[in-house]
Amino acid sequence: xxxxxxxxxxxxIAAPGVARVYDYYLGGSHNVESDRxxxxxxxxxxxxxxxxxxxxxxxxxxxxxxxxxxxxxxxLDLGSGIPTVGNVHEMARAATPGARVVYVxxxxxxxxxxxxxxxxxPRTYMLAxxxxxxxxxxxxxxxxxxxxxDRPVAVLALSCCTSCRTPxxxxxxxxxxxxxxxxxxxxxxxxxxxxxSPTRSRDSAATRGSxx
Length: 212
Fold this sequence. Notes:
Blueprint: H1 18-25, H2 33-43, H3 49-69, E1 74-78, H4 88-95, E2 100-105, H5 108-118, E3 124-128, H6 134-143, E4 154-158, E5 183-186, H7 204-208
Parallel strand pairs: 1-2, 1-4, 2-3, 4-5
Helix pairs in contact: 1-2, 3-4
């Protein structure tokens, strides 16, 4: 298998990576043959999965554009995967050119790919951390990513809430961010069913009632 120029040498591209498979479903270009083969197998039992993920990404775009247009220029993207198709920093900067974005993920493949893609952009940072440890995430987002917690920070948790140990408490409910910090989170409803990764779904009534 030929290694594409964007894939770091230390990443095993013979094995599928969750973040790259997600990119494949979104119609992106940062995926390889092993990801596409695995992704196609998953579609046999779950044919609607790409449509669900693309709708979720569309919601992310709308949130970022609206928040950036309102003047917020700091973003914390939890469980970000690889920032390729419709990424937060490009959408935010379309409205606010100086926007600063900290991406957070704990998947080593996503982290390595992301750092390669974001190299040379001083206003983005890929933070290797578990978003379920908010104290550490916020501390490093300030120290390494340059976020200013005295000003509003948009906290985005799009889909990663399926990994929460306590589904009724979204990871966006963090006390460390300033007042006026916008927060957005999504969960799959019980009607979506299972995906390729273990998840916790919520019924539609609970999801509608959990908005921040």
